[in-house]
Amino acid sequence: MGSEKVVSIKVGVSRMTVALHDRSGKIQDLRVWRTPKKISSVQEPFENFQLPERWGNILEVVLISVVPQLTAWLKLIFSKNSRITLHCPSAEEWGLEIEYFPRKTLGVDRIAACHGALVRYPELTGRSFVVADFGSHTVMTLYRKGTILGGSIAAGIPLQLASIGGGLVLGPSILKLPKGVVGKSTEESIAVGTILGAVKGVEGLFERMEKECGGELELILTGGLSQLLRPFFRLPLRSDRQLIHYGAWGVHAEGSNKEGPGKF
Question: Is 6 exposed, middle or buried (0-12, 13-18, 19+ CB in 10 A)?
């Protein structure tokens, strides 16, 4: 690695998160921005998106983005800084087989999440699991013994909350935890439908995936809402909300022949 400092950037539909990793891959600092809905110029959004000065200037940056417009913008921004090396991993660099059609349409965030699970839990190598990513969308990705087979994509809890009543009848809905399975008020009913509905949906799909695969799978939660939702699951599982960042660090480290997975 040309630098001991590695920064991973995850660009999602609603949030951009930037993590600073130490040599072992652990996250030392994390910053969050709202994803810009529109970029009118290179200069305008850059004023709101700056890597902290204390991180230094000689940085290896790994970009995991599902927003093409922002991918192009970040590439342009970092190309102007000679002390930052930007790496946008291709599907071939992760060391994982992909059975998805067309192959190039598999989101790099899903690949990074599966790779991140192997980085965080090296004992899963050679085994099969499902990563459920709870963000703007709820995305499940099936990994079976070295191969990503696909999964499911659904509107996430934030999108569901924003869509209830078209945002016109109830106004903005605030995420609240359900107290039971039967909502006694409109707010409680929304909490049951969105939160418990998402949890039970993932559990049901996981069990169907396990049945179709004909073997035992492990469930791993990640994403911004994963810690909040974990207590509502009945299935045994693992949880780490930053798997995509760890996957980004891992693919960079392996490519540099330095600190590889399993160093936590």
Answer: buried
